[in-house]
Every structure is written in C-alpha cells, then in structure tokens.
Amino acid sequence: MATFLYKLGRLAFRRRHFVALIWVALLTLAGVGAASAPPAGTTSFSIPGTEAQKAFDLLEQRFPGQSADGATARVVFKAPSGEKMTDAGNKATVEKTVDELADGSEVASVADPYTGKAVSKDGTIAYASVRYDVSGMELEESTKHALEDAAEQARESGLTVEVGGDALQAVPETGATEIIGIAVAAVVLVITFGSLVAAGLPLLTALIGVGIGVSSITALASALELGSTTSILAMMIGLAVGIDYALFIVSRYRAELAEGREREDAAGRAVGTAGSAVVFAGLTVVIALVGLAVVNIPMLTKMGIAAAGTVAIAVLIALTMIPALLGYAGRRVKPAGAKGGLLGRRRGGEKTEPKKDAGPAKANLGTRWASFVVRRPLAVLLLGVIGLGAAAIPASDLELGLPDDGSQPTSTTQRRAYDLLSDGFGPGFNGPLVVVVDAKGSDSPKDAFTQVSDEIKGLDGVVAVTPPAPNKGGDTATISVIPDSKPSSVQTEDLVHAIRDAGGDIKAETGAETLVTGSTAMNIDVSEKLNDALLPYLVLVVGLAFLLLIVVFRSILVPLKAALGFLLSVMAALGAVVAVFQWGWLSGLMGVEETGPVMSMMPIFMVGVVFGLAMDYEVFLVTRMREAYVHGEKPSQAVVTGFKHGARVVTAAAVIMMAVFAGFIGSSESMVKMIGFGLAIAVFFDAFVVRMALVPAVLALLGKKAWWLPKWLDRALPNVDVEGEGLRTADERGSGPDEDRELVRT
User: Fold this and answer.
1) How far is CA 108 from CA 126, 130, 131, 526, 566, in A?
2) Using CA atoms, how far apart are residues 662 and 654, in angstroms rounded to an integer?
3) In the prediction, which pLDDT does 173 show?
4) Which partner from 170, 284, 329, 744 sits 20 to 30 angstroms from 19, CA to CA?
5) Is the CB of residue 211 less than 8 Å from the CB of residue 711?
6) What is the DSSP string of 290-338?
7) What distance in Å separates the CA atoms of residue 260 and residue 356, rounded to the nearest whole number?
8) Measured between alpha carbons, how far is 85 from 64 in angstroms, rounded to an integer?
9) Cβ-count burial of 587 within 10 angstroms (0-12 exposed, 13-18 middle, 19+ buried)?
10) What's the CA gap between 608 and 288, in Å, rounded?
C-alpha cells in the first residue's frame, strides 16, 4: 500500500492543477445540487419490530384519512390571576382563536376546549388541540405564522398563551460556538506548524470535504428522507477527521523535508507513510458508522452512512488534494524545525535547509514524557486506569430516554406550554399512551373494548382513561391513557409494560390484541431496542476493527490493548455525560437548562463514533513506534521514538477534534448538544489518558511480546506496509530521484 500511495502522492503533486480542478468541480456540483434540490420533507421515524410501530401501522390501516403522522399543536391558555378560563371574556377570546385556527388550509381539525372538556379542574388553564394534514417538517411557513399570530392575538387580551407540539418544529441551530471551535483549530494549527500557509491547508481541505459531504446530503435529503440532524452530524465528524487527516500528512511532509528530500519526493513519502495510517484510521471510522445499521433503526442507519460518506471524502481529499496544495505552496511550507515568519518565508525568501552536524537536538516534551513512562510504566498504568474508572462511576446510574418538549429550554414556547399543561392537568398529560385494541379476531369487539378499558382503569399509576373510540368497521378502537407520572419517568415505563402484560391475558380470553403506542411508548421501545443491540454492535465493530488492526500492526496484543483502552475511555465519557446531563454537574456552564435521562441512542452512538476516532490516534501514534521497531530499534526506544515524531501532532489533532466537537455544545438541539459534549470529552480521555499514557506504559511492560504474531498468521496476512518499509528498501538499493520518477511512471 505504501508504494501505491507514494505514487499517488507524487502524481497529485505534479498534476496539482488537474487534482484541484476535480475537487472544485465536485464541490460546485454538490453545491448546485443542494441549491436546486426540493426542501426536505417528512423524516419518518419508524422502529421496525417494536409493538409501538406495529400499532402505529395498524392505525394507518384501520383509521384511513386521519393523518396519524400529521403535525399537532396544543394552544394552551392560562387566565390572569383571580380569573377563570370559563369567564365570559376569556371564553370569547378562546373561541375566536379556535375559529381562526380552523380556517387554515392544512388544518385537519381543531378541538374546542369547552366542548372537549379540556379545562383544568381549577378552571385556570385550558387548551385547544390542532391537528394538521401533513407532518411538522412539511407545514408551510404561512401555516406556522397563522398559528403564531393566533396565539399572539389571544395574548393581547391579557391571557397567557403558549404553543406546544411539533407544529412549530424548527431546524436546530448550532450557534456561534461552532465558529469558535474552528477558530481554535486554526490557532492550534498555526502553533503546531508556525506558518499560516501550512496551517491553512488542513482547514481548507477539511472545509471543502465537509462542503461536498453536507451539500450532497442536502441534495438527497428529500429523496432519502434525511433529517436535519444528519447533516449536523456529518459536519461535526467530517470537520474533525478532515483536519486531523490533513494535519498528519502535512506534518510527515515537513519531517521528510527536514531529512533533505526534494519536495515532490517528500510529498510522495508523506502520503505513502502517514497516508497509509490515514486510510486505515478512516476505515475504522467508516466501519463503526456503517455498523450502526445492525441496530435496525432507519434514522440511525441513515445518519451513520451519511457521516461515513463524509469521512471517506475526507480520506480521499487528504490523499490527493493535500499533496496538490503542497505543490502550490512550494517553499512557503518549511521543513520541521526550520525557523521563519508566520507566512512561511524567511526574510529574503531564501531556501530553508535542515542544519547538518549541529549536534544532538534537545529532547522535545513528547520524548521526555515517553522516557518517563518507560521508566515508570506500572505506576502510570495504575494511575490512568484508576482515574478513568473513577470518571466512569456515574455511568452506573445511567437512565435512557428520548427528548421531548420537557427538555427544551425554558425560553421556548413549547417548553412553557409543556409546563402549563403539567400544572393544570398533571405531569402525565404531556405523554398520553395510545392503546389500540384490534378485535378483528374477537366474537364480540364491543365487549373486548370495554374489558380492555376496565382492565387499564384498575392499574396503578393511571389518572384517566378515555372511552374506547372504534373505527367505522367497528373492529378496532383507540383508548387514551393518562399516566400520573411524566413521560420520561421509570413509573410511566412500568405502566406501559403493565398494560402490555394485561393485554396478553385479554387476548387469551377474547381474541382481541392490545397494543400500546404513542410518542411515550415509542421512546420506551427505542430505548429497549438500542439496549438490546448494544452488545451485538460492540462485538461486530470491535471485532472487525480488531482484525483490521492485526493487519496494520502485525500483532495480537497491540490491537487487544487498543480495544480495551477504548472501552475505558468510552465508559469514562458516558460517566461524564451522566454527571452533566442527568445529575446536573456543570449544567449551567454547558447550557443545560433541564436535566433528565440521557438520550437513548447516546451509548451505542458513542461506542461507534468514539471507537473509530480512538483508533485514529492508535494508528497514527503506534505506527511510528512500529516503524522504529521494524527499522531495528529496541522496543522501549521505539516507544520513545514514536512519541518524538508523533506526540506533538497527535496532541494538536486531539485538541482540534475536541474544539470542533465542543463547538456543537452551543446547538439549540439537545441531542446535538449532548453528542458534541460526549464526543469532546471522549476524545480528551482517549487521546490524553489512554493513548498518551496507557499505551506507552503497556508497550513498555510488554517489550518484544507486544509485536508477537504467530508465524502461520504472519504468512497468511497481507503485507500492507503501513510503515513504508518498501520505500526504505528502495533507498537502500540506491534509488535516486530520477529512478523514483521512473518507478512512478511504471
């Protein structure tokens, strides 16, 4: 592989105009496609194989024309202090608002609070339910404005009016902190390279890659039903890996220049060595993201595949566009260790050559740290493991759920409507359960409906049960159940299971099947499905990546150590997520206004993404150690050499990735905020504790055993030559620049 990538790097360096033109053309094509694509329509949230989804599908079949997936809104009214909603003036205002809402072209129905018994017992709060023909993402802006205007006019009469539901659902915003994250990345790159030109290359290529990826997602959003979160996730991961991959190749290019190589040859060798690590690091990320398909949640599968596509683009750009841009930059990108101004030129523009015979160079911080770890490996190992274990303790209290209006910021009208309904009708009113009774196989459907209703009324935790509402055929009915606990509570989850258990007995007696659905039941089913899929997913992703790393490192213990280190870092990161988003530690600093259960897909998502990113640092750092070991150094010295060449760059890459992820903490979407924080803290634990401390400690303890591989397996595995040994062998044969060019032509 190193030889092939060496040829590719030199070709891109020489044919830089052609390479740059291709990528600019792809960016333009993707941009035009995004601009001309129809707006994204409804994002279906189906959970195949769950009872809630089965009931939802049954509703669409047995209750046609009722727009089961249509948007809903609850316009909540609260009377001024000392007044009632039943007072004549307040009642007139509400009825006028209901009439205005009913005039909308996309409105399916509006329920009057006074005829629908939607007034609280104390008479201070009432609500009008609005149902639309289309989903919240498909609603026209004029319909949303009409809803907001109706609420505003009602406020002018002195009432407190808030609007809940998904009718006012908006595309999440990431906020200014995303730009701050990119700015931090730029500063780190300038410090690392000491040159604005060299620092600008990784940023430029990462932005081009993300631009192509996100524009492609936008262009396909309508056809593939991709949600807005999909593009945000692709942007988050694409920016992080795009900058990191380019950073490693540019750093290796500068190191090759410092050894006195010509620029074209240095570009080829940088792509042949660091580029090989980029390919395998990118493969681990892609495997982890595509592997999300095993969960069998279409939305999660689409998010994973879209993000994986953006990572693949980042790899291709790093391998081709970086050497092309290095060709354009010329002498403005200096050899490693060379002095010069921030613009990459020495005064006078003279050529910067590495100094020869200048004596032994001063040991850098990475070398000094690695030497310390090699001398005290056991102490460092124990300290790191104990520290990560302590950080992981909160994960034992992990509670899972999906966000609802109760997790919105208190500044939003959705959250204020949620709180008003809880005050007036109880906490369970915001998460009603929909019980669907399929009595098609029953001899007496009406008796079955009544029996189900009576059975539910006798369960603990039930506040109210509506009378059965049969369909036109009389073989199916719906029953609404109001719990006495909030939607995301354990008590509500227990009630759902109790209804389903009771339904089993009823089916045996009457032949009628009882199913529980609704957003609350759907959230519970999603959490359980994700929990059940976590272990198979972990085995699949870690297993495939383990095999891949055996090929890369030609070792059994090094990949095993990498996988165990990942488990430590991801558990510590989950502990931090629980502490902030569930316990409320530092919640004000993170902009978390409402603590609650951790998003259901967070554990499995973190396992996938963090594993892929963790393997990036493993590959980049340990390949330099193996390269030194293969070239004849002792195992302990190879560890120090690997840190000498890689620690500074890996540190810069980790800081950049943390800054990019942390930038998304400012998002208005709670899911994006949690993912941004979780990934940022996971990178911190993995890069600075696992890879920088535990990895050298374990390798120092193992010595030569770390690179042990059974002879039969060594013969069976393909030689991918990540270390560039084939290129070194060519040097030893005395191949010069002219002969190298002949090699490329052939």
Assistant:
1) 20, 8, 5, 29, 51
2) 12
3) 55
4) 284
5) no
6) HGGGGG--HHHHHHHHHHHHHHHHHHHHHHHHHHHHHHHHGGGSPPTT-
7) 10
8) 35
9) middle
10) 5
The stretch 689-697 carries a mean pLDDT of 91
Cβ pair 530, 597 in contact under 8 A: no
Burial class (CB in 10 A: 0-12, 13-18, 19+), 559: buried
State the distance between the two ends of the chain, measured CA to CA, in whole angstroms: 16
Element (H, E) at 465: strand 462-465
Q: What span, in angstroms and rounded, lies between the C-alpha atoms of 654 and 672? A: 20
Helix 298-329 to helix 263-290 angle, to the nearest 10 degrees? Answer: 180
Residue closest to 206 by CA, chosen among 736, 657, 740: 657
> Which pLDDT score is estimated for 381?
94
The two tokens of residue 560 are 């095993």
pLDDT of 540 over the 90 cut: no
Looking at the DSSP assignment, which residues form a beta bridge with residue 381? none
Distance (Å, rounded) from C-alpha 198 to C-alpha 187? 12
Region of residue 624 (left: phi > 0; alpha: psi -120 to 50; beta: else): alpha
Report how far residue 220's alpha carbon sits from residue 212's, in angstroms, rounded to the nearest whole number.
12
Q: Closest Cα partner for 179 from 568, 663, 744, 689?
A: 663
Contact predicate 437/477, CB 8 Å: yes
- DSSP calls for 140-159: -HHHHHHHHHHHHHHHTTT-
Say if residues 306 and 217 touch (Cβ distance below 8 Å): yes
* Model pLDDT for residues 179-236, shown as the tens digit of each residue: 777 788 888 888 887 778 888 888 899 899 999 988 988 888 777 767 667 787 788 7
CA torsion, points 336, 341, 342, 344, in degrees to nearest 10?
A: -60
Ramachandran angles phi, psi of 525, nearest 5°:
-65, -40
Q: Are 323 and 267 in contact (CB under 8 A)?
A: yes
Token code pair at residue 221: 């959003």
Residues 667-686: tens digit of each pLDDT: 767 777 888 899 899 989 99
Q: pTM (2 decimals)?
A: 0.77
- Do residues 406 and 487 make contact, with C-beta atoms less than 8 angstroms apart? yes
Residue 108's nearest CA partner among 75, 143, 79 is 143
